């Protein structure tokens, strides 16, 4: 399949003052026959969601943007988009918030951007299909520019809190550019090895002992790398490799 080439500022932006979920809207548009990439951007989401339907708090002043991608790659490669998007989001934050200290800006497997140990942003990649049954994807970004929730089981943070106030539109502009660059590098999956290498450079806890919850089971091991589908490769103390696929774990640094 010939990969599409992407160019920044050419993807139309569709704006909503308020919407349930930009990802839900994107999937709906694909199923209705949307044939060209588009950004769906909302000021507020009333049913923002994360993985497995978990809620994503979506207050005015943060960025909620979904990139709709009809037919971006063979279906087997779509899970890689999570890492393409993670790198692009990191690039965009670096560009749009130059005051930020970058050494604590890390990608957390599989789909979060962390800043100084707090969750700054989440990415939700969902697969769908177009009206001809071809694979399609939506990539949702929720970025805490101004607000972050309190009282979660872990720390959340915002660019505002980090002393790098950034308008959602400035971040969107940088993200549009960064996504075009990273999607072209990915090249429908042919370029995933270089995406993978760069993602690991900025990954949280790579090389460290981590605990991973897989349903009711908890596995502890050294986070060695991600494989060519984006699965996490853990080395247990007994030397056995454990492959953890995206979508069913939460990662916590191991405290001995
Ligand atoms: P994790 O990566 O933290 O193990 P997850 O990947 O399942 O969890 P997501 O699907 O990215 O999490 O997002 C949903 C979760 O994120 C919610 O359950 C909530 O705990 C947290 N959350 C919701 N809104 C925000 C926000 N604005 N900023 C940071 N975290 C949030």
Please provide a brief summary of the model.
With 256 residues, the protein is of the alpha+beta class. It has 2 domains: 189 residues, Bira Bifunctional Protein, Domain 2 (BirA Bifunctional Protein, domain 2, 2-Layer Sandwich), CATH 3.30.930.10; 43 residues, SH3 type barrels. 22% of the residues lie in helices and 32% in strands.
Describe the structure.
The chain has about 260 residues and is an alpha+beta fold. The protein has two domains: about 190 residues, Bira Bifunctional Protein, Domain 2 (BirA Bifunctional Protein, domain 2), CATH 3.30.930; about 45 residues, SH3 type barrels. Helices cover about 20% and strands about 30% of the residues. It is built from four helices and twelve strands. The strands form two sheets. Strands 1-2-3-7-6-5-4 form a seven-stranded mixed β-sheet, with helices on both faces. Helix 2 packs across helix 3. The termini are far apart. Adenosine-5'-triphosphate binds next to strand 6. GO terms for molecular function: ATP binding; biotin--[biotin carboxyl-carrier protein] ligase activity. InterPro entries: aa-tRNA-synth_II/BPL/LPL, Biotin_CoA_COase_ligase, BPL_C, BPL_LPL_catalytic, Transcriptional_repressor_C.
């Amino acid at each position: 399949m010939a990969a599409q080439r992407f160019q920044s500022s050419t993807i139309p932006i569709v704006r909503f003052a308020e919407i349930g979920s930009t990802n839900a809207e994107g999937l709906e548009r694909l199923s209705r026959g949307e044939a060209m990439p588009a950004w769906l951007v909302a000021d507020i989401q009333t049913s923002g969601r994360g993985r497995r339907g978990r809620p994503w708090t979506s207050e005015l002043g943060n960025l909620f943007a979904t990139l709709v991608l009809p037919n971006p790659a063979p279906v087997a490669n779509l899970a890689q988009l999570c890492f393409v998007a993670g790198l692009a989001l990191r690039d965009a934050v670096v560009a749009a918030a130059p005051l930020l200290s970058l050494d604590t800006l890390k990608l957390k497997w599989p789909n979060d951007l962390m800043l100084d140990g707090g969750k700054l942003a989440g990415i939700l990649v969902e697969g769908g299909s177009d009206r001809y049954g071809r694979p399609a994807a939506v990539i949702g970004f929720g970025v805490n520019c101004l607000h972050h929730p309190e009282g979660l089981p872990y720390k959340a943070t915002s660019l505002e809190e980090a002393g790098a106030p950034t308008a959602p539109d400035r971040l969107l502009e940088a993200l549009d550019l960064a996504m075009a660059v990273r999607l072209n590098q990915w090249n429908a999956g042919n370029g995933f090895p270089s995406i993978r290498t760069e993602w690991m450079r900025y990954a949280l806890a790579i090389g460290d002992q981590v605990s991973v919850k897989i349903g009711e089971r908890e596995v502890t091991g050294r986070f060695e790398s991600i494989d060519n589908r984006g699965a996490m490769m853990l080395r247990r103390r007994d030397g056995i490799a454990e492959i953890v696929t995206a979508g069913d774990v939460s990662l916590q640094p191991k405290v001995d």
